Amino acid sequence: MLVLEDVNVYYGAIHALKGISLEVNQGEIVTLIGSNGAGKSTSLKTISGLLRPKTGRITFKGADLATIAPQSIVAQGISQVPEGRRVFANMTVIENLELGAYLRKDKAGIKDDMKKVYELFPRLLERKSQLAGTLSGGEQQMLAMGRALMSKPQLLLLDEPSMGLAPILVNQIFSIIKEINAIGTTILLVEQNAHMALSIANRAYVLETGKIVLSGDAKELAASEEVRKAYLGG
Ligand code: ATP
């Protein structure tokens, strides 16, 4: 579905992604793990078109993504939940969700998807008229995910959904990610919480200083000595 081939990304003189190749197949949960500064967020921003590769190819269902505008990438079926949620604080929950559907014209479909988002996140329904800035961190994460789902993506890009959340909320968010996948959305999940990410993913890639150093079946990686030592605290 999504294929990156030998992608190189720079911030000025900083070579942030050094020849990344990876793929995500339809129906999968794939996770990209690695420590701080490894290039995880850079990878997602490059897929969603916010950053451009200097060299390399990115295709989604066979179409070249490297040269089209970010909103066209959304229109093709890819939606990103950014790191740190970035909800619109001065808008209500409903308004934030509606913004997620700004490229769509199918009013009935939008209404239907709003209902589905409220089923996934009942807390958002309870708070639908509340300003997003007054929500808790976990609720804002739910809203950011709900907003991304309102574009009806085929591929959902999640950037560190566990960041700053209490363990109980992390569990809740991860079980919802599994549910979103089960009802038909392919997921590329970036996480520093390797333990949680590997527990729900089918496959995983390990990034270190801009390079993929390991990849494979998530369960096998979670059991491997190398990953346990470096990312799972022994
Ligand atoms: P984190 O979890 O801290 O976000 P990450 O794995 O997502 O880590 P990136 O944010 O992708 O890492 O950063 C990869 C590299 O690129 C790092 O060395 C970082 O310092 C550098 N970098 C990221 N953003 C910029 C920027 N706007 N300008 C210059 N360098 C940057």
From TrEMBL:
It comes from the Bacteria. This is ABC-type branched-chain amino acid transport systems, ATPase component. Residues 2-234 form the ABC transporter domain. PANTHER family: HIGH-AFFINITY BRANCHED-CHAIN AMINO ACID TRANSPORT ATP-BINDING PROTEIN LIVF (PTHR43820). One of its GO terms (biological process) is L-amino acid transport. Belongs to the ABC transporter superfamily. The keyword Ribonucleoprotein does not apply. Keywords: Amino-acid transport, ATP-binding, Nucleotide-binding, Transport. InterPro entries: AAA+_ATPase, ABC_branched_ATPase_LivF/BraG, ABC_transporter-like_ATP-bd, ABC_transporter-like_CS, BCAA_Transport_ATP-bd_LivF, P-loop_NTPase. GO terms for molecular function: ATP binding; ATP hydrolysis activity; branched-chain amino acid transmembrane transporter activity.
